[in-house]
Amino acid sequence: MANPLKAIGRIFKGKRGKRGYSELSAARLLSDWVLNDDDGNKRISQHLGHMRRMCRDLAETNKYAQRYLDLRVTNVVGPDGFKLQSRVMDKTRVADNYARRIIEEKWAKWKAPQLCSPGGNQHHNDVDRLQERSIGTDGEVFVVVYPGFNNKHKFSIRTLEPDYISHDLNIELSNGNRIVMGKELSRQNKCVAYWLNGEHPGGMFKQYAGAKRSRVPALSQFLEDVPGIPSKSGYILHQFTPRRPDQQRGISDLVACVESLRHLDRTEESHHVAARLASCAVFQRVDENADEWDYEESERFADQMQITPGFALKSGLGRKWEILQPQFPNTSLPDHAKQTLQSCASSLGVSYAGLSGDLEGTSYSSGRLGSLSERDGWKTKQDEAINGRARPIFEAWLRTQLMFNQLGGLKLEEEQRYRASHFQARRWDWIDPQKDSAGKKSDLDMKLTSPQRVLAERGLDPEEVLNEWAEYELLVKSKGLNPPAAQQGESVAKTLQQVYLAVGKVITAEEAREIVNQIGGNLTDPLPESFGEVDAARLVDWIDAKRQGPENTPLSNPAKNGKL
Asked: Mind listing the pLDDT tens digit for each residue in 336-351?
């Protein structure tokens, strides 16, 4: 007779070989999990159309999806869009104030309505918000850039829905290039062009349904090639966030929570139906003890009867009325909805309070922690929008202006120097202004940060703020009032930095003498004529050296070309 203990040992010995990852393949609860080895582009191409339609429907009908898109547009673009700050320097690494002023002024004029888009009905900030909403809904956005457009700035952009670039267009070309989901890629996998449908595939004009596709170069071709005659068809800019290497089309963030939000809609709908029934529904049933029953009359009466809340009905012979008592209120619904929205908020990278609007139980500490974490996510998306849309469009605009001599004499040969710029995205108010401002002041005192960085974190342009302060000082003087004096014992350089910190702010020698005297320099004689026009930021070092003693600082200015 076989030993049962040995038999059991053989069974367990055989099981040991299936430990580890191999157990996943045999797991009963995972048996319905459909898997494949398709690359990212093939997988996206098979499902992109369906996913996009679901996300668009949610964006139109689901209040939480709408809330997410509103949060995205508000926090990424904000009310003022991305502010251009030119950082052009001359050959001596000194701020080129003339070039900066011309570029910023011309850019601001082009952003105005009637100029930035062919339709002429949107400000550029509105266009930015539309493009960001498209990315939130569709996962990607396409922009056609028109250098040489027929307006006074010779430049315009048009935002396209992704449907114009067919995701099911996949062809190998004779020159070795490939068209992958409507994008033409070189052998080095660089996008060189897009194949654009003549009309929207779902457009309302049927005669254009079969409009011929056209090949439109990628915007990178215009920016990288030697300046020449721009393409009449324009150039296409494509922004999306890839999640797999070599991915060529974008997927909306809403895809991960489409099913949850849809089920939550249906659950809430059933809750509303139950509430309605609980208030007014009445049903008729047969009384078995009745002498007679007229079914035809009963059916006709029921069809004509309209029951409303508070409705009362007397029953006659043979009739007995029964009130439907649905399970209302459903006490489990709030917990279910909260759990669903918490998982969706986590998937979308936003806070539960922001997505649901539910601030119950939110303390200062938890609110601050959630807001700071969420803001890091928004900053990431801001960076994606700036590098993926704002900067390429600006560089295309700049080249166009230089090509058509629209920038007050700035030369095309120095295009690379004029590209130096910074885009200031929106920032947020401090959660606790008193605590946060005290912390920033402490960082400034310990030189752990700079005034420029503090202002930038608030979404402000340091140069613009300081120019406004300078204007305020002049206004105070014009009214015969004394401007604010420096605090006793305060560093002259620090005081000057607080008021005239803008790098590249040019002032006259007389203005410089007045500034020095305002903050305690007590100069009786004018500054040497060799000062000429000086950079306010460079004046700081001279003043500090002057304060160390006359023996350390000559009265003459060692500046070259009349500058410090």
From this structure: 888 999 999 999 999 8
